[in-house]
Every structure is written in C-alpha cells, then in structure tokens.
Design a protein that fits this description.
Residues 1-49, 359-379 are annotated as: Disordered. This protein is of the alpha+beta class. The chain has helices spanning 47-61, 65-86, 170-175, 180-196, 201-207, 209-227, 248-317, 319-335, 355-359; strands spanning 87-90, 94-100, 103-109, 112-115, 121-127, 131-135, 148-150, 156-167, 231-235, 238-242.
Length: 379
C-alpha cells in the first residue's frame, strides 16, 4: 500500500508512526475506516489493484494482449463507421442519385436499402412527391415590393400564389441548376407579372383567375424545360389578389360602385324582359284576333257568295216569282222594327185606322190610353 511504512512503522504519509501498530494521521488521529466486517475490519479498495485487475481481464478478451488488441479495436471501430456511411436508406417518397468521384451514375436508387462505396461514392436524396413553392408573399420591411404587380389597365395589384410541382428527373434537378428552388421562385414571379400585365385588374381579382393560372403554369413549365430543371408543374393556384393597403379603401369604393352598376343593369334587364314579354304577348293576341277576324270575314263572304249563287240559280228558273219574293223579304227586313204605316192607294180608304195601337210602346196594355182614354171601335 502507498501509505504503508516499509521500515516497520505504522504511520501515514505525514509520519507519526509508532510501535504497537497505531496508524495515526497528521493530527495524531488515525484515518477513518468503514465500520463492520470481521477480523481486523474492511479495508477500502486499492485503486492500483483495481487497475491491475482490469488490465488482466482486457488481456484475456483481446487476442494478442492489450498492446496488440488496441489496433484490432480501432480497426473494428473504423469498419463499423465505414459500414454506417456506406449503407443508406431511400424512403418511398424519395429517390437517390449516387455519385462516383462527383460524377452521377445513370441509375436512380429506388426506395429501399442500398449500399455504395464510401467515400469514393456519395449519394444525394431527392424528394419526388408534390411540393409547394409560395410566391408573392405579403410585403415586409425587407421586401416592400413583394407581390406587387402592374395590371394591363394600369392598376397595381398584390398577388399571392403557389406553385405545386414534382421532381420528374432527379439528376437534372440536382445538377442542371445551382439552386432549383430560387430559380423556380424567380421564374414563377416573372411569369405571373407577364400574364397580369396583359389583363385588367378585374380579371385577377375575380373574373378570370382560372385562365390566368393556366397561362402562368404553361409559361413556367416551358421555361423550366428550357433550363433542364427536371421539374413538372402541376398547378399554379392564386391564393389571394387584392389592391395595396394604401389604396384599398378607394378600390373598395370602386368595387361597390361597380356592384351597384351591375345591380342596376340586372334590374333594367329584368324590366326590359318583363315589358318585352308583355309586348310579345299582346302582339301574339292581336295577331290571333286578326287571324280570327280574317277567317270570319272570309267565311261570311264565301257564305254570301254561295247564297247569291243559289238565289241566282232560282232566279234563272223563275225570274218573276223570285223577284217578288226578294222584294217582300227585303221590305220585311226593312220595316220589321219601324213604326211607320204605309197605305196603298189602290186598296182604297180604310174607314177606321187605330193609329194609337200602332204607336203604343211595347209592354203597355191594349185597353189603356194616355190620359185615361180607351180606344173603342164604332162611331
């Protein structure tokens, strides 16, 4: 033990050892020892003894001893580290592209577990599911003009939209462009400015957003194809389109005026349609009445003509009789509602003619006379 006195003393490192085995400390007091145990009491474990035992066990485990086994341990650690770096996993929504000395291989790693010769070969992982690129966010202090565009009718609009895309060619996406995301951002904003600049602001706000989105998608796809970006544009939805905050109130007033105009036009169209329907109904009624009157007149004329022909045929057979009959029928029709009395001179003078009976109004009694007089025959 390091504190034991090899000369036969029992003192500690500060001396003070004396006969009789009394091991005392520097202040004349022995070191504290753990209590309990048998014999002369439990001694604290020796550090050197523990180290020596650990070395013995390590020699038994490592072949070639401790000195030769260190290289084996280091080698195993290096092999494990190399295996971890050489084996990689591709998820179902990803594709891997292996590079050998920085040059990409032709084959693309599909989902699953793969192995490559690290560090000679490297691997780049690309996500191939649909991704979203936001363009034209609200203006901030760092970028006050974000999303502001000039429309075809010289109005300033703030447009927020997104680009939904997928990676169709992982190799082209990784190596043909330095920063595909930034390039897509700039191309999308440029395409939207181009389309909005050819249209009035009203189309961007509500009237024709779908057509604008389709045109912007086609322009972005064509530009990215020319760059060989390996990106397929799925859709370009316009999330929000509004005037700048500085002129929002005036623009809303214009919008309300336009809505009032649309309402007035709609009411005028309804009134015009109502009046037009009534006029068409009246014209149809007049035409129907005219057609009915026409048919009536034609039928009456045809009937009169037919009657005249039939009378003429009878007249041709017996002219005198027919002439006399026509005369009598005509005079009967003429004198039917007349109060006149016609006397034929050839018949002579009638001794008594009751003129008061002839001129009496219909509905009066035959025996009553005006003024209480009654008509009597005789004297």
């Amino acid at each position: 033990m390091p504190w034991s006195n090899q000369n036969g003393g029992g003192g500690g490192p500060w001396g003070g050892g004396g006969g009789g085995g009394n091991n005392q400390g520097p202040w004349g007091q022995g070191p504290n020892r753990p209590r309990g145990g048998g014999g002369g009491g439990n001694q604290p474990p020796d550090l050197e003894d523990l180290i020596r035992r650990g070395q013995d066990r390590l020699r038994n485990v490592v072949p070639g001893g401790f000195n030769g086994g260190a290289f084996v341990i280091v080698g195993l650690v290096l092999i494990a580290f190399w295996a971890i770096q050489a084996i990689y996993t591709v998820q179902p929504d990803e594709r891997g592209v292996e590079l050998r000395f920085g040059k990409p291989k032709e084959e693309v790693s599909m989902p699953g577990l793969h192995f490559h010769l690290w560090p000679i070969e490297q691997v780049e992982i690309v996500k191939v599911t649909e991704q979203q690129q936001n363009v034209g966010s609200r203006a901030t202090s760092n970028n006050p003009g974000a999303g502001l565009m000039l429309s075809g009718d010289q109005n300033i609009v703030s447009v927020q939209f997104s680009v939904l895309f997928t990676v169709s060619d992982p190799q082209a996406y990784l190596f043909n462009l330095e920063d595909p995301s930034q390039t897509l951002q700039q191309v999308a904003e440029s395409a939207m400015r181009e389309v909005v600049g050819r249209r009035p602001a009203q189309d961007v706000f509500r009237d024709n957003r779908e057509d604008i989105s389709t045109q912007v998608r086609d322009i972005i796809q064509g530009t990215m194809d020319n760059y060989g970006a390996g990106i397929a544009i799925n859709a370009v939805p316009i999330e929000d389109a509004a005037p700048p905050r500085e002129v929002a109130e005036a623009f809303e007033e214009v919008q309300r005026a336009q809505q009032d105009e649309d309402r007035f036009v709609e009411e005028a169209n309804q009134y015009a349609n109502q009046r037009l329907g009534q006029a068409r109904g009246q014209s149809a009624q007049i035409r129907e009445e005219a057609a009915a009157y026409k048919d009536q007149v034609v039928k009456e004329a045809e009937g009169e003509a037919q009657r005249f022909i039939s009378i003429y045929d009878e007249y041709a057979k017996a002219p005198d009789v027919t002439r006399q009959r026509i005369y009598l029928e005509t005079m009967e029709n003429v004198l039917r509602n007349s109060n006149k009395v016609i006397i034929d001179e050839k018949q002579g003078v009638v001794p008594y003619l009751p003129l008061n009976e002839i001129t009496r109004q219909p509905g009066t009694q035959a025996g009553n006379q005006p003024g209480g007089q009654s008509a009597t025959g005789g004297n």
